[in-house]
Amino acid sequence: MVRRLLRWAVDHDLITADLTLGVKKPLTKVASRDRVLEYGEIVRFWHGCDAIGYPYGPLFQLLLLTGQRRREVGELTWSELDLDADKRVWHLPKERAKNNKVHDIHLSDAALAVINGLPRIAPLPGKPNWLFSLTGERPLSEYSPAQARLAQAMSSSDWTLHDLRRTATTIMARCGIAPTSPTAC
């Protein structure tokens, strides 16, 4: 659009030169990633999460254990969880799901252990009771500094938070678990 505008301006003698000459077009498609963490990396990831601690360490662990999106886990509230022994499910409301559909995420023993180890921060009046909040006023939002600390603890920076989602689904598929199955390997 800028190039068209400048060419039009040159054609109508409004400017003397098209400043976009020689400027390459931006990439139209970003290369997709297919990165899956290997088992040794997962071990280092888990220990790194323990090292950086609450709130980001357990949040990152739940990303891997549930295969859910960063925002969905980051804004998780205690009221969305049904931790009864016979249920063990996270009810993700459609308002918070990317596809605008309700999701029931079945929680493994490891996911329950992470959740049960979390401190309960009293919410402020009128605010949700988030699992991951520093003040109770709002959920976490700045992930990059914590991810950088974790990458340093792991001695590996060649991964993204979304790679954890891909890793979870890949490992579940290797175990023969369907994405909606309540069974964990």
- The sequence of SSEs as H and E is HHHHEEEHHH
Mean pLDDT: 89
Share of residues in helices = 25-40%
Decide which structural class fits the backbone: mainly alpha
Shape verdict:
elongated
**Total domain count:** 2
Supply the CATH superfamily name of the largest domain.
Answer: Intergrase catalytic core
The largest pleated sheet is described as: 3 strands, antiparallel
CATH arch. level architecture of the largest domain: Orthogonal Bundle
**Which regions contain 5 or more consecutive residues with pLDDT less than 50?**
none
From the N-terminal CA to the C-terminal CA, the straight-line distance is 52 Å
The Rg value, from CA coordinates, equals 22 Å
State the CATH topology of the largest domain. Answer: hpI Integrase, Chain A
Report the CATH C-level class of the largest domain: Mainly Alpha
Sheet-strand content, in percent, reads: 5-15%
Tally of contiguous helical segments: 7
- Side by side, the strands of the main sheet go 1-2-3
Strand segment tally: 3
